[in-house]
Amino acid sequence: MTATKYIAHQPNAQGYIDYSEHENQLWQQLYQRQVTNMPGRACPAYLQGLDALAMSVDRIPQLPEIDKVLFAATGWKTAAVPALISFGRFFELLANKAFPVATFIRTKEEFDYLQEPDIFHEIFGHCPLLTNPSFANFSHMYGQLGLAATKEQRVFLARLYWFTIEFGLVQAKDEPLQIYGGGILSSPGETMYALSDKPERRAFDLLDVLRTPYRIDIMQPIYYVIESIDYLDEIAQMDIMGMVKQAQQLGMFEPKFAPKSKAS
Fold this sequence. Notes:
Elements (H helix, E strand, L loop, with lengths): L20 H15 L8 H10 L9 H12 L2 E5 L5 H9 L2 E5 L16 H8 L6 H16 L2 H16 L2 E2 L7 E2 L2 H4 L2 H7 L5 E4 L2 H5 L11 E5 L4 H7 L2 H11 L14
Parallel strand pairs: 1-2, 3-6, 5-6
Antiparallel strand pairs: 3-4
Helix pairs in contact: 4-6, 6-7, 6-11
């Protein structure tokens, strides 16, 4: 299987990108298909952010438009980046309240799933919650921790990001299970799967999260659930790097998935 090679667009001096009609149509199809899945499934903080961003339905949003709303709400902005960036650059951007956005959109062939995060994943999946102070503060703290961490520690920190920002679920007492992870919110298939009876769901435990392996190319066998978006403030106050050290000593849990085939 050959991977599709995506090339990010370069914004002009004003930060705007001239997307093609075809690219804008892809955005429209992705947006219309997924936005209908959000009510009752996405957490209220996400839906409030989606309303606040008021992003275009029929064309790819321009980053300065997103920045205006984010900066007014939480002091964040976006940063146009290539398809893939280093861990170091990723942490540096978050530490400076800049959310990396790869400025390309997936092809029709990879409509349902692609490994590289595209602009639909970043803008539709993540940016609405960056209007929420708890989510924004957690993301900022995470960037600062990662910037100061060693290469070995960053591997453990990646799991914290994966099971919160990317694939986190939330459930308040006596309330329905809902989604706040951008990796789920930008995927119609995973939106339905994550809330079904198929995966295992566990209450958030920092040490367990740091010790849980994951694969990026499958539906997640395990999701971790927090009780509210505000709980991200509590996680930010935990001794995360102390827990990373403990996780390094204890080692990883057994994976709940098969090893990735080398033939793929």
